[in-house]
Amino acid sequence: MPKAPEGPYTPINEKPNYNSNNVIEAKVVNNINNDFTLLTPISSSEVRTNFVSKVYLVLWLQLMVTSIFIGCCNQLEPVQKFMLSPIGTSLMFPVVILLLTMTCMLSCYQDTLRRKPYSYIYLSVFTLLMSYIVGYTGIAYKLNTLLLSGISTLSIFSGLSIYAIQTKYDYTDKGGYLLAGLFGLVLLSIFVSFTNYNTLNIVYAVGGSVLFSFYIVYDTQLIVGGEHNKIMFHIDDYVLAAVSLYLDVINLFLMILRLLNGERE
Fold first, then answer.
1. Which of 152, 172, 218, 257 could form a disulfide with 231 if both were Cys (CB 3.0 to 4.6 A apart)?
2. Does the keyword Transmembrane apply (predicted)?
């Protein structure tokens, strides 16, 4: 599964300015073209709250759409027949190519994706494409396995999100290590696809679960900020922020499915 590219993040090295009442002043930072604002440690709490709320609202809408589609693939025979038909399976290749292209667009067309309606169109298309791919898990796995994996993923995500916000340790400068781990996981997945070793498959699933768990902590701190402010998202990059967390959750869900190994006969 694709992972959102690193950036655009803003290293923060400035100290907050205090007014006469010892209250942190909100500061607006503009780029050269004056077309977006940066979320900094000294941004007002209202600005930060609005940004975080928008990101998580988009995330839950994405997860809801994907979950509903997986459920339809699992329970509705007409949907299963279409997904397994020559037309349905032949759609996989262009869907994957388009999804990878859209992932790259997060880095190449940042300014465009900050503007409406392009941001909404991008999120809608990206979510539908990912839902189509992940929908095949609804056909391959039993309902109880899907539910257990979904509940486990939600529980882990919630716990890691709380940890990311509460911990004093800053993970926002560890993106390079996570990217190296992601490349290693991709290489391992290629090797696993050509072997039938159950032990190696378990190692891959466990490694992937750990890696994407760290990604959840990393991306959460980039979004929420607070004490973890070495690197942060631009305030207008809620599309990138939501897609990053969405991919973290989806990939963790798929890794847990591998561990549970409850495929239909």
1. 172
2. yes
Name the maximum alpha-carbon separation found in the chain: 70
Query: Which H or E run contains 69?
Result: helix 45-75
CB 170 within 8 A of CB 222: no
Nearest Cα residue to 119 out of 98, 102, 134: 102
- Say which residue, 254 or 41, is predicted with more confidence: 254
- Please tell me the chain's helix, strand, coil percentages from 3-state DSSP, rounded to the nearest 5: 70, 5, 25
d(CA 203, CA 128): 30
Phi first, then psi: give them for residue 10, nearest 5 degrees.
-120, 115
Q: Are 225 and 178 in contact (CB under 8 A)?
A: no
Classify residue 75 as exposed, middle or buried by CB count within 10 Å of its CB (0-12, 13-18, 19+): exposed
Going by C-beta distance under 8 Å and a sequence separation of 6 or more, which residues neighbour residue 10? 38, 39, 40, 231, 232, 233, 234
218 vs 10, 184, 185, CA distance in Å?
14, 18, 17
Of 214-218, 224-228, 239-243, which range is least confident?
A: 224-228
For the chain, the average pLDDT equals: 81
More confident residue, 219 or 193: 219
For the chain, give every domain's residue range. Answer: 9-260
State the pTM of this model.
0.80
* C-alpha–C-alpha distance, residues 102 and 54, integer Å: 21
End-to-end alpha carbon distance in the chain: 25
